[in-house]
Amino acid sequence: MRVLVTGATGFIGQHVVRSLSGAGHRILGTSRSPVPMPGLTNLDLCEYRMGDPLPRTITEWVPEAVVHLAWEGIPDFSRQLCICNVDDQTRFFQLAVQLPSVRRVVAAGSCREYGAAIGRSSGSVEVVPDSDFGWAKASLHRILQAECAEAQVGLTWFRLFYVYGPGQRHRSLVPTILDQLASGDSLVVEHPDAAKDFVYVVDVADAVERAVHSTGVHDVIDLGIGRLQRVQEVLNAVSAGSDLAAQPVGERYRPPVDGLWANLDTARDILGWQPTTGLVEGIHLTRVAREGPRT
């Protein structure tokens, strides 16, 4: 299948491209600065900015599926930038789904669309976001849902929980802890009792690949590991085999914090997907990718 991947050189995009290529799909990626990426030598790149008219490179390539991962300005999730992303991505959706060759769109949403909900996610289409980023993603979902319905194009909207793995930006939790460990510093986090649903990026890429060739009728699918994992568990996984001790900041004890975790029913029933990489293994693989195997 011929797959157009926006944000192909980003954190998740690189892993999605590898998964799609490994499954035999042909890939055309978009990037604002199409510089060849190490390890992605089989990826054809097209310079494209969200919201601009589609270049001939895309229209003449005749994509059969679109995987939409692009988001401008990370890690800036301000209201102004969220509004710009909604406007630009809406124009892209309107153009992309009208291509006669396109049969399915797979797009990256966010668990932040669920707002202040706690416990096991409802997995429902209707949500009540409580942040600018959550609002932006939920708005894009509604817009894309309408565009796909009108064009009779299949849609998979993944609500991603806390994705980690090789290639993640340095200020994120796992890379920050690995940087501390590599520098010989004690591991320090501000909220070790905070709980999130961490999911390994290669598992996410596998789900995207399954969705690309899916013919099932579905829309919203949560992607997480399906349970809460405290930041302290991440620290323990990172420091496994190390004599460095985690040192919480501030109070010596913080009570457990409620959180939201993914509802994996639809991922399992529709895509036959479930996460296969546990936290300890995933962080080990991330560490090896950054530092190389230990001798």
CATH topology of the largest domain: Rossmann fold
CATH top-level class of the largest domain:
Alpha Beta
CATH architecture of the largest domain: 3-Layer(aba) Sandwich
The biggest sheet amounts to:
7 strands, parallel
> What would CATH call the homologous superfamily of the largest domain?
NAD(P)-binding Rossmann-like Domain
Q: What is the helix content?
A: 25-40%
- Runs in which pLDDT lies below 50 for 5 or more consecutive residues are 243-253
Number of helices: 9
Number of domains: 2
Number of strands: 13
Report mean pLDDT, rounded to a whole number: 89
* Structural classification: alpha/beta
Measured by DSSP, the beta-strand proportion falls in 15-25%
Query: Which sequence of strands runs across the widest sheet?
Result: 3-2-1-4-5-7-11
- CA distance, first residue to last residue: 41 Å
Order of helices and strands: EHEEHEHEEHEEHEEHEEHEHH
Rg from C-alpha positions?
A: 19 Å
Give the overall shape: globular
